[in-house]
Amino acid sequence: MLTDDLPRDWFRSAVVYQVYPRSFADSDGDGVGDLRGVIDHLDHLAALGVDVLWLSPVYTSPQDDNGYDISDYRGIDPLFGTLEDLDELVGRAHGLGIRLVMDLVVNHTSDEHPWFVESRSSRDNDRRGWYFWRAEPNNWGSFFSGPAWERDERTGEYYLHLFSRKQPDLVWSEPAVREAVHEMMRWWLDRGVDGFRMDVINLIDKPDGLPDGEVKVGDPWGQAFPLVATRPRVHDYLHEMYEQVFADHDRPFLTVGEMPGVTVEQARLFTDPARREVDMVFQFEHVDLDKGPGGKFDVAPLTMPELRANLMRWQVELAEVGWNSLYWDNHDQPRAVSRFGDDDPVWRERSAKTLATVLHTLRGTPYVYQGEELGMTNVPFSAPEDFRDIESLNYIEEQQELGVPFEELLPGLRFRSRDNARTPVQWTGGEQAGFTTGEPWIPVAPNHEEINAESQVGVEGSVFEHYRALIALRHEERAVSHGSVTPLAMDHPDLWAFGRQHEGTRLLVLASFSREPVEVPPELLAGWEGAEAVVATSGDAAAGVLSRGVLPGWESVVLRSSGTLAG
Ligand code: ISL
Q1: Cα Dmax for the chain
Q2: How far apart are CA 436 and CA 297, in angstroms?
Q3: What is the pLDDT of residue 562?
Q4: Full-model pTM
Q5: Which DSSP string do the residues of 303-366 spell out, in sequence order?
Q6: From start to end of 61-174, where are the E strands?
Q7: Is the pLDDT of residue 236 over 50?
Q8: Which of 45, 75, 393, 466 can pair with 60 through a Cys bridge, CB separation 3.0 to 4.6 Å?
């Protein structure tokens, strides 16, 4: 059951679970996940113990970008169900003590949204100024390949779309646009939802005059991103939104701004509670580390120390002011275990658990992306027909037009295509992984026979049960939710270690990022002789550290001790 009597920073001890509804569970056999499918599987979230469900878009949409192109902010797409289903989901989730956060996609609308339909109808329409119209486009490229401008026959002018041509950008300097968004947000809060995850919210302020972007070798288009990311007025718009939508709201809520390219200094401003902007941001530094010079699909090698240095820097920099969100993956990113762990069958479970140990004992609000709690992996895509995502499809088309054979694109796509995260959740080892009784919109991954919820929920030692233990620990142990963080052994090539402390309680987190056993530097363990292993990837891991100072390959342990200890 939910209580409304919580401090404003209640989210500090919360864990969020992201549902990408299209791929979560299909209740009616049409091959696409839906709201009733989410309702039917709420017990899975309750068993895991999460506090919040973030629902990726279910609004009315032509589905050009799987719902991130919205044509009615107050309607539910029939593909997913009805408004009544959504109300029922909110009610049932609340009954299980789970709050529900909606996706807010307001950098752009669908080109089928009535606002855009009106805007494009004539040059003097009242809503013409709600979108960017120009007689001559600038040189910007779209994030989904090709130019960021599309010529519209009716008026002969071009409109701006940073994403697909069916996602025209809104003009946030237009007060009526902001008012319409605020009103829509209040409508959802009044309906019972508990907050918003704000899609690319740091791109909403465009530079005056829309100047050309720098042209890089190998890309015909100018770079829009450096010109549109995190401009000063984003702070004003978010503060205004807080005042207009949340300031007088009388129930606990959560806001998280998705902000590609945000720096830690900027994030501190966005999440400083005194500034009243957002509770936390999704930063991208750690998921951009393995991007090569050729862009998203150019994969660069990444070592654990580089990943650790980045995330620990965010821990330190947001220690006094601001708050971190913590995530390994989501619907836009490769599967965590395949990217940062080791998805070889021998090491998959251990490394999936160890990634969880690290993320869930850091300071911040952890996010679990559907299937991550089962250790789901990337998918062995092999042909152009295997892909569904507009970003991957546009990229394949663009590169093939340039004469690059598909085989050369495949390694990058296999590693990074957003479709890796979008194959159906693996509920069972049976047909279609229990996702649908029909033909799924994207095939289920072949490894569902080994990796599925049925074989893990309630089964000791499973990845799922490890997540459950870590989530319970965050709820019980204030050193996890509220404690300080001390990075340790930062030059160790394979051991990720840090301390947490709150009042008289200290925790020591030790995680191996290698197949070989890791000898824990003795100075780290000095004073921890009588400590208790509160969570470990296995009994061996706990015993190995406490008796011999050795952590088995890809294992991890959280030690707890009360009183003053060396560290
Ligand atoms: O995957 C990316 C493109 O290379 C990211 O930059 C991604 O586009 C960025 O994270 C923004 O993502 C969000 O907005 C997009 C939508 O496609 C993503 O699914 C959403 O998470 C446009 O709405």
Answers
A1: 77
A2: 31
A3: 74
A4: 0.97
A5: -HHHHHHHHHHHHHHTSSSS-BEE-S--TTS--HHHHTS--STTTHHHHHHHHHHHHHHSSSEE
A6: 72-76, 99-104, 133-134, 149-151, 158-160
A7: yes
A8: 75
Give the pLDDT mean for 255-266. 98
Amino acid at 469: A
Angle at 431 between CA 377 and CA 459, to 5 degrees: 60
Cα 226 to middle of ligand 1, angstroms: 16
All domains of the chain in start order, with CATH: 12-104+324-381+417-476 (3.20.20.80), 114-160 (3.90.400.10), 175-207+225-308 (no CATH), 482-562 (2.60.40.1180)
pLDDT band at 524 (very low <50, low <70, confident <90, very high): very high
CA–CA distance, 453 with 456 (Å, rounded to integer): 5
To the query of whether residue 258 is one of the catalytic residues in this protein, the response is yes
Structure tokens at 264: 């830690």
How far is residue 467's CA from residue 336's CA, in Å, rounded to a whole number?
14
Exactly one of 51, 205, 258, 477 is catalytic; which is it? 258
State residue 563's pLDDT score: 59
3-state DSSP assignment of residue 188: helix
* DSSP three-state, residue 220: coil
Question: Which residue's C-alpha comes closest to atom 15 of ligand 1?
Answer: 68
Please state, as a whole number, how many other Cβ atoms lie within 10 Å of the Cβ of residue 302.
Answer: 15
Ligand 1 binding pocket, CB closer than 6 Å: 65, 68, 105, 143, 163, 199-200, 260, 296, 331-332, 391, 418
Residue nearest to atom 1 of ligand 1 (CA): 332
Cα gap 342→46, rounded to integer Å: 28
Measured between alpha carbons, how far is residue 19 from residues 57, 241, 319, 370, 374 in Å?
9, 25, 29, 6, 14
Q: Which of 102, 199, 296, 369 to mutate to test the pocket of ligand 1 (most atoms within 8 A of CB)?
A: 199
Number of H helices and number of E strands within the chain? 18, 22
Q: How far apart are the first and last CA of the chain?
A: 39
Q: Give the whole-angstrom CA distance, residue 488 versus residue 506.
A: 14
Burial 435-456 (b: 16+ CB within 10 A, else e): bbeeebbbbbbebbeebbbbeb
C-alpha span between 32 and 135 (Å, rounded): 40
For tokens 């029922």, name the residue. Answer: 88
Annotation marks residue 265 as catalytic: no
Catalytic hit among 157, 199, 332, 477: 199
DSSP state of 547: I
Q: Is the pLDDT of residue 400 over 90?
A: yes
Parallel, antiparallel or unpaired: strands 495-502 and 484-488: antiparallel
